[in-house]
């Protein structure tokens, strides 16, 4: 048995042991739902008898009961049963009954019994006997609220999670990794550094605070400067568009559940309009309403004055419209439209996670229009940009190539040529076998290359993507005039390197643990005059730094110097300048370097500014320690 299969089987078996232990402790009235294995262990969902709940103080008690069960060396007995028999077995377990009734007609139903007193509805497989689990190292680590079938409208449940590994050493190493991940948690660090916040009034939509927005702008500037060197142009387009655009692009058919729908209403809207009523009724497939009229407050809306709009989840359709505004010649291609507009994608509340999964974000999007003969060179250049960007952040990446799916659209020969071009690029860049091939996993409109970056904890994140698209140009009727005067259809390359900037920022917050490279730091230099009589020189220093594009904060208040320094420390800014009589007299600065207990004294101000400019220009990862 392969290691991953082995891990899956014994973790799933341990989930049954957990359920048996919970029932033994909290009684037979416990309703047990599902207990799947996950990447580092498993979980099980329960509804306990009224008045009972599982808290952290109960974890040891449950673990001890699990060990008791393991020591009994009980068999896991598999049995196939009919639907009627299954319903009888689980007649007192409402969630099992629902699962059984949801099974397709003719589906094989199996149960697993652990010992003589615990039976579960399960496909398996499991170990033969609990004695095989005696050496498993496990630990219950959390209990959280969950919803039955992940539906917030359904029953609340308690979800108990545990880690499970083949040895105590592996479990200890994993727990150590988890603790390090907690220390790097971007939500925690983001609050500490005052980068961003969230509010219930805008779920999944970050508020960028002054420091965070400075870093955001540094990322945008770096991307824009690099793209300008590669002859990209930038556009911006409306954030909401009429339903008609999304019908043409295919998003209305394929992506509607992830889109925010906006009722466009002509005429004057009175203050007492109940927008919820409108939103509830706008879902007709053709015109956006169910009935001829909608009553909302004191206003009656009919089919003529309700015009459905949607906030854009992607930039693609607007780039197509921008290209289509005039006739293009083959001599103009490639045309590169970079775009950083705000996007909105509706997510389930349980899926949102800090900056990693949000409902409002920006991407370093680009849509490049090329002739088929230009695909290879253009994608090679995109990969060169990705190499430079990822190297700047000190991260490595690997490439994945996804080929034609079964439901592909377009001409087979064009697909074959496009895939051959991508494969040739990847072979030249990474060597044969130097990238992963996902057969049939491409988008329906074209093959793609995904770039998976690896962070300081060894986790992989899909950030960059390069997708060939033959379908949108067809849907929008895009053409260019070829050399012989005929009209040809361009190919579109969808491309992002950061991907979602919000997600990328979350990744780099955790990767750098909040101690950012100089060029990326929200505030790069803190200025601390020792006493108020040194404020004039401190202001001169701060103004010179700002004039050189260096981000500065200064504390001119009449308070203890050490307190000022202490106040700046939690922000992890690269340098704190301490300025007193000697520095003012000699036009120098004394520098506290982040991560160092030593102060670099009497550095000429012009030398310090020169060092800052160099780190900004070269986007260096390391802080200068000597000047």
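Sequence proposed for the structure above (627 residues):
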């Amino acid at each position: 048995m392969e290691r991953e299969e082995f891990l899956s089987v014994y973790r799933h078996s341990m989930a049954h042991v957990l359920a048996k232990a919970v029932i033994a402790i909290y009684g037979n009235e416990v309703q047990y739902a599902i207990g799947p294995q996950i990447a580092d262990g498993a979980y099980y969902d329960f509804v306990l008898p009224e008045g009972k709940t599982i808290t952290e103080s109960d974890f040891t008690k449950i673990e001890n009961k699990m060990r008791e069960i393991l020591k009994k060396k009980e068999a896991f007995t598999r049995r196939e049963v009919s639907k009627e028999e299954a319903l009888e077995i689980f007649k007192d377990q409402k969630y099992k009954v629902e699962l059984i009734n949801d099974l397709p007609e003719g589906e094989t139903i199996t149960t697993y019994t652990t010992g003589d007193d615990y039976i579960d509805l399960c496909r398996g497989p499991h170990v033969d006997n609990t004695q095989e689990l005696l050496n498993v190292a496990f630990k219950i680590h959390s209990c959280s609220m969950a919803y039955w079938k992940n539906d917030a409208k359904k029953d609340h449940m308690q979800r108990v999670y545990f880690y499970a590994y083949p040895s105590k050493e592996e479990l200890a190493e994993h727990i150590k990794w988890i603790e390090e991940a907690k220390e790097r948690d971007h939500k925690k660090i983001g609050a500490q550094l005052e980068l961003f916040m969230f509010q219930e009034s805008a779920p999944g939509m970050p508020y960028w605070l002054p420091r965070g927005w400075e870093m955001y702008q540094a990322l945008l500037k770096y991307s824009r400067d690099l793209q300008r060197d590669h002859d990209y142009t930038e556009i911006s387009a409306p954030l909401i568009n009429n339903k008609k655009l999304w019908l043409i692009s295919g998003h209305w058919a394929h992506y509607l559940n992830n889109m925010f729908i906006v009722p466009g209403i002509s005429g004057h809207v009175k203050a007492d309009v109940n927008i919820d009523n409108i939103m509830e009724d706008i879902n007709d497939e053709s015109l956006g309403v169910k009935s001829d009229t909608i009553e909302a407050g004191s206003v009656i809306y009919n089919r003529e004055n309700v015009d459905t709009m949607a906030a854009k989840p992607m930039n693609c359709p607007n780039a197509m419209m921008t290209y289509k505004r005039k006739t293009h010649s083959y001599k103009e291609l490639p045309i590169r439209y970079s775009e950083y507009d705000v996007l909105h994608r509706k997510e389930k509340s349980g899926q949102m996670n800090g900056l990693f999964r949000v409902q409002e974000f920006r991407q370093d999007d680009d849509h490049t229009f090329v002739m088929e003969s230009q695909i290879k060179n253009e994608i090679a250049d995109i990969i060169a940009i990705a190499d430079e960007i990822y190297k700047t952040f000190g991260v490595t990446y690997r490439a994945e190539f996804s080929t034609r799916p079964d439901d592909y659209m377009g001409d087979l020969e064009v697909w074959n040529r496009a895939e051959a071009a991508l494969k040739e690029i990847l072979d030249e860049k990474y060597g044969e076998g130097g990238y992963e091939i996902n057969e049939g996993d491409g988008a329906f409109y074209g093959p793609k290359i995904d770039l998976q970056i690896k962070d300081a904890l060894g986790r992989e994140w899909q950030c960059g993507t390069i997708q060939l698209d033959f379908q949108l140009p067809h849907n929008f009727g895009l053409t260019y005039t070829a050399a012989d005067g005929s009209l040809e259809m361009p190919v579109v390359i969808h491309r992002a390197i950061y991907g979602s900037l919000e997600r990328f920022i979350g990744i780099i917050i955790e990767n750098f643990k909040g101690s950012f490279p100089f060029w990326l730091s929200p505030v790069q230099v803190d200025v601390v005059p020792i006493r108020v009589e040194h404020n004039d020189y401190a202001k001169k220093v701060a103004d010179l730094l700002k004039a050189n594009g260096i981000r500065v904060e200064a504390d001119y208040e009449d308070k203890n110097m050490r307190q000022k320094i202490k106040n700046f420390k939690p922000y992890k800014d690269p340098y704190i300048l301490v300025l007193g009589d000697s520095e003012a007299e000699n036009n120098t600065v004394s520098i506290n370097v982040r991560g160092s207990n030593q102060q670099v004294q009497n550095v000429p101000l012009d030398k310090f500014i020169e060092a800052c400019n160099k780190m900004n220009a070269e986007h260096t990862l390391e802080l200068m320690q000597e000047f």
